[in-house]
Amino acid sequence: MMLPQVMLALTVVLGLASANTGRGTVYYQHGVTGSCGQANPDDAIIAAIGDSWMDGESPSPYCGRQIQVTNIGSDDQVGGAGNTLTVTVADTCSTCGPDDIDFSVGAWDSLTDNAGTFNAQW
């Protein structure tokens, strides 16, 4: 019986195998160059991911990659649940957990309604 292989194939095709869930936070650029080598304004649609993803390299192979993020809710009443946005990886978040993601103000404003944190699936 080949059912496990079929299920694995469906999971990969549907993109479910790569889903990560972590804490979504906001950070300010302050005109500083990120670990990917570019300075971005606060309204840029970018994000920083943890050291475990960035492989401790500068620039990382993840620099410039686009990832789709969905706000799947918040314990902080942040709001915006269901909002989805594609962001570009532009920096490393040294204080992030393995699947946490730190958003520029521009990305944050598109994904949420208030200050706090939210559960981000990407």
UniProtKB/TrEMBL annotation:
Q: InterPro entries attached here?
A: Expansin_CellWall, RlpA-like_sf
Keyword annotations: Signal
Keyword tRNA-binding present in the record's keywords: the answer is no
Give the signal peptide range: 1-19
Q: Which PANTHER family match?
A: PTHR31836, SRCR DOMAIN-CONTAINING PROTEIN-RELATED
Protein name per the record:
RlpA-like protein double-psi beta-barrel domain-containing protein
Species per Swiss-Prot/TrEMBL record? Elaphomyces granulatus
